Amino acid sequence: MSDDDQPDTPDFAEGVAAADVPLDGVLLGHVGEGRVILARVDGDIVAVSADCTHYRGPLEEGLRMGETIRCPWHHACFSLRTGAALEAPALSPLARWEVELDGDRVRVGREASPAAPARSRATDPETIVIVGGGAAGFAAAQRLRDLGYGGTLTLISDDACAPYDRPNLSKDYLSGEAEADWLPLKPDAFYAENRIDLRLGVRATALDTGARRLTLEGGESLTYDRLLMATGARPNSLDLPGLEASSVHLLRSRADAEALIAAANGARTAAIIGASFIGLEVAGALRKRGLEVHVIAPDAIPFASKLGSELGSFIRRLHEKEGVVFHLGRKAKGYENGRVTLDDGATVSADLVVAGVGVAPRLELAEAAGLATDEGVVVDARFRTSAPGVFAAGDIARYPDCVSGQPIRVEHWVAAERQGQVAAANMLGLATPFQEPPFFWTAFYGLGLHYVGHAETWDSIEIEGDLESQAAVLRYIKNGAPQAVVTVGPEQATLDAAQAFRERCRGG
Questions:
Q1: Which of 27, 108, 153, 256 could form a disulfide with 38 if both were Cys (CB 3.0 to 4.6 A apart)?
Q2: Contacts with 298 (C-beta within 8 Å, 6 or more apart), sequence order
Q3: What's the number of CA atoms in the CB half-sphere (13 Å) around residue 216?
Q4: Around 188, how many Cα atoms within 13 Å sit in the side-chain half-sphere?
């Protein structure tokens, strides 16, 4: 950048007073064109990149806790000392620099080499197999190599594409604001460089937990010392007359998204059946593409059972301001000649139809193998299943929530990634319990909504701020304590709430 483009922050290469570096918090500056933060960690001053490696969120606005810092946007967590990406959704470390102390001044020198993992590998399993190339499966594979695992590692995926950023499919990618090269979680070379045997378009058909053998479609079998089941979920379909037509779409995979984009390019009207998060994200994306969009759902208020009537009504109004037409309290009865028929006899014009009526966990492999299931694969806090050597994570895992103490199953991308990371550590014997509250985000027309915690029911909802001003915090209270917190607009309250939940989990 030119001198005129230099950020209005100190140049750490020239040096700053050591006294300017806070005891807690961070100090923002730059080195060349890169934004950098300085922080004090255990008596030392360290320097790392100020940009989150997920979507480049500003870490100086995040939450500093001890030697870690969390991104304000999507809560990725990094080590300030090593730059390591400790918790998803960030999957790459921060750059870090050598720091020189000269009297009472601090200067940032050359970029430092990545820090190597320090742990004993003597008891590592020889062979690990991961079934599922989604959020949990990929995050587990990467974390195993990040932890220094050197054994044979195989990642089985029935998707034709290498692991990609699924949340983007219904958001910026579908709206046309993100390019296809944004989607892959890592470049193709990553798998060879990290010796991950990635098998794409391959389905696992049987699991023999006694023999520790996984059978693949076509008859090939793989033996394992540890196995992670991360088979994810599939979108629910609609059994209605006419909905087998090619103009009716589900959205789960990259192939689904590309088929929907191709259909949208030649369409004028769209009907979304179901006011789910995916359904309304698709509605927003198709409005940005200029389509007339109708949403059909049996609920009187979108998300009333999940978020409460006030926030649900606000989300409806937000979409209506952008031109989305709702048909609430109604069910689709069929689709014929480019029109969806409703249960009251009315019809809605739709060149394409999208079913957004939720997902179901893919449990067939687990159930056939005899694993304990209860609306999901039953696991403990370390994601161990009822079978020795077999772990499960992501959308299929029913695990003990550390906040409520109750078993839960969640279908959130970041939660699945973090579960995969913790499962990876436990497959290596690191005895790491899962102590993270669920977290997810959605966005409509540039407005972010962040949710942390898990509230299936609540006694009351406390609202701070104003929804219509798009700056509000909602706390879902049960038995006198918050079970979940939602922010509309500013994200800081969910960062703070997530930390409070962690402290509850750890007895703090």
A1: 27
A2: 328, 329, 330, 331
A3: 19
A4: 4
> What residues contact residue 286 under an 8 Å CB cut-off, 6+ apart?
174, 175, 264, 270, 293
Residue 380: DSSP 8-state: -
Angle, CA of 365, 370 and 375, to the nearest 5°: 70
For β-strands 152-156 and 127-131, DSSP reports them as parallel
- pLDDT digit string (tens) for 128-146? 999 999 999 999 999 999 9
Q: How many helices (H) and strands (E) does the chain have?
A: 10, 36
Asked if 415 and 423 count as a contact pair (C-beta separation under 8 A), the reply is no
| pLDDT > 90? residue 121 | no
3-state secondary structure 232-263: CEEECCCCCCCCCCCCEECCCCHHHHHHHHHH
Q: What count of residues does the chain have?
A: 508
Q: For residue 3, what pLDDT is reported?
A: 42
Looking at residue 1, its pLDDT comes to 39
Spell out where 80-210 has E strands: 85-87, 96-102, 105-111, 127-131, 152-156, 196-199, 204-208
Over residues 407-461, the pLDDT tens digits come to 999 999 999 999 999 999 999 999 899 999 999 999 999 999 999 999 999 999 9
Separation of alpha carbons 42 and 58, rounded Å: 23
Task: Identify the burial level of 49 via C-beta atoms within 10 angstroms of its C-beta, where 0-12 means exposed, 13-18 middle and 19 or more buried.
Answer: buried
| Strand, coil or helix: 60 | helix
CA dihedral 51, 57, 58, 59 (to 10 degrees): -70
* Pairwise CA distance, residues 364 & 467, whole Å: 42
CA atoms of 184 and 192, how far apart (whole Å):
15
For strands 221-223 and 213-216, give the pairing: antiparallel
Burial of 122 (0-12, 13-18, 19+ CB in 10 A): exposed
Share of the chain above pLDDT 70, in %: 98
- Fill in the DSSP letter of residue 492: H
Query: Does residue 178 have a pLDDT over 50?
Result: yes
CB 88, CB 417: distance < 8 Å: yes
Distance of CA 149 to the CA centre of its chain: 24
Q: Are 152 and 197 in contact (CB under 8 A)?
A: yes
Return the pLDDT at 416.
97
Of 157, 240, 169, nearest to 204 by C-alpha is 157
Amino acid found at 60: E
Strands 96-102 and 44-49: antiparallel
Q: Cα–Cα–Cα angle for 463, 464, 470, nearest 5°?
A: 95
The whole-model pTM stands at 0.94
* Token reading at 339: 């029109």
Residues 256 and 161 sit within 8 Å (Cβ to Cβ): no
Q: Please report where in the chains the tokens 């436990």 appear, as a residue.
A: 426
**Which residue in the block uniquely carries the two structure tokens 């499966």?**
137
